[in-house]
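quick one: FE2/S2 (inorganic) cluster bound model?
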Amino acid sequence: MSPREADELTIGELAERSGVPATALRFYERQGLLRSRRTPGNQRRYGHAAVGKVAFIRASRNAGVPVAMIGEVLGILPEGAAPTREFWIRAARCWSTHLDDRLSRLRRAREVFGGCASCGCLAFDRCALMKAGTGEPAGQGVDDGM
Ligand code: FES
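yep, here:
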């Protein structure tokens, strides 16, 4: 077969089909979420499963799932396989717990923030947002899981 397999996509084609910019596709690849092969001219070529994987990644990211968690789940897929409907349902169920936890932390932070909004001190040693009262160790934000 020629250097370009019949069912392979260039990064531009994958971007066009998925609606995800090439910069984001390169980012996904650097993060290990997506794989490509390189041509002798060092151009990326994606297999037929890439469109489904990008859809899975995009939906997951839009739901607020951290990249690392997406990578772990995609790591279960056999090489060259696209996520199936059943795969997505199982992953979404798993991530519901994570998202519920994030929501709880955000609600707690919102309550504390309400007090801070009328205080204004931003003192590291006194500000409630910087203490463990939010359920987070001091120095960590409520959105560190992203
Ligand atoms: S700003 Fe004063 S406690 Fe947070």
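Confidence is low (pLDDT under 50) at residues 134-146.
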